[in-house]
Amino acid sequence: MKPPVLAVRDLAKSFDGFMAVDGVDLEVRVGETVALIGPNGAGKTTFYNLISGRMRPTRGSIVFEGRDVTGLPPHRMSRLGLSRSFQINNIFEELTVRENVEVALTALHRKSWRLFASRDRDEALHREADGVLARLGLAELAPTRAGVLSYGDKRLLEIAIVLATRPQLVLLDEPTAGMTPDETRAVTRLIREIADSGDQTFVVTEHDMEVVFELADRIVVLHHGRVLAQGSADEIRANRAVREAYLGDEQEA
Ligand SMILES: Nc1ncnc2c1ncn2[C@@H]1O[C@H](COP(=O)(O)OP(=O)(O)OP(=O)(O)O)[C@@H](O)[C@H]1O
Ligand SMILES: [Mg+2]
């Protein structure tokens, strides 16, 4: 079995005594694609906030590639090779599509690039950004201002930014939220291809079960901040507690 990229133990986060994440144990192995699902308010985004260093856990530990990273800030986590997307778009609307990717690349390369003349550096940066954009089918939009993109293309750009730095672990928080069915299918296929093509590890949150079943090697279900179940698509589909968690939430709504 491949080694774990991420191992969390008894991870918890309380907001004024309310346990949004309440004792999660989870291991994610190199190259796996894990879907993290659960009803609204289950604690998925909070879990990402903890793993990516945006929030400090109330208790528990986070080990990334064998190293205890509990409480490290986001910029340290991203330099170590963890990158995340947000449930809500997080791009620079005034910059072009290419510049958005370049910002992410610059942060990564800052140290090594001191050695180069700035013109060589700019050209290399351009080329690298264009390579990332091509991979996501955004090549033609490179010179376009990000603010005028369609909603679906904005989400794609966000994924490009996340993937630009070739992180070992990629956290995607509802990458297809708000997309049309066509856009959703395209993005799902793309994530699948990228996940299959290398050793990158993905944790993806999604409400669209078709996307989940297509992408996930393993599904982890969160409910009230705890892991309610985990397993294959078939196991999760057949799991009575999972069905009740989703139905119960619909009835309450
Ligand atoms: N900063 C915060 N302060 C107080 N409560 C919060 C905060 N962030 C999240 N919560 C609460 O924690 C719980 C879990 O929220 P979270 O956003 O992690 O859920 P989620 O699984 O991502 O839901 P969704 O599917 O709707 O995105 C919710 O009850 C939410 O109201
Ligand atoms: Mg969320």
Spell out the key features of this protein.
binds magnesium ion; alpha/beta; 4-stranded antiparallel β-sheet; Rossmann fold; 9 helices; binds adenosine-5'-triphosphate; 253 residues; globular; 10 strands; 2 domains; 6-stranded mixed β-sheet
Describe the largest sheet.
6 strands, mixed
Unreliable spans: none
Given helix and strand content, the structural type is: alpha/beta
Counted beta strands: 10
- How many independent structural domains? 2
Calculate Rg over CA atoms.
Answer: 19 Å
List the helices and strands and how they pair.
Blueprint: E1 4-15, E2 18-29, E3 33-37, H1 44-51, E4 59-64, E5 67-68, H2 74-80, E6 82-84, H3 97-109, H4 118-135, H5 151-164, E7 169-173, H6 181-197, E8 201-205, H7 209-215, E9 218-223, E10 226-231, H8 233-237, H9 240-252
Parallel strand pairs: 3-8, 3-9, 6-7, 7-8
Antiparallel strand pairs: 1-2, 1-4, 4-5, 9-10
Helix pairs in contact: 3-4, 3-5, 4-5
The structure holds adenosine-5'-triphosphate and magnesium ion.
What this model shows, in words?
The protein has 2 domains: 165 residues, P-loop containing nucleotide triphosphate hydrolases (Rossmann fold, 3-Layer(aba) Sandwich); 75 residues, no CATH class. The radius of gyration is 19 Å and the shape is globular. The protein contains 9 helices and 10 strands. With 253 residues, it is of the alpha/beta class. 38% of the residues are buried. The protein binds adenosine-5'-triphosphate and magnesium ion. Magnesium ion binds next to α1.
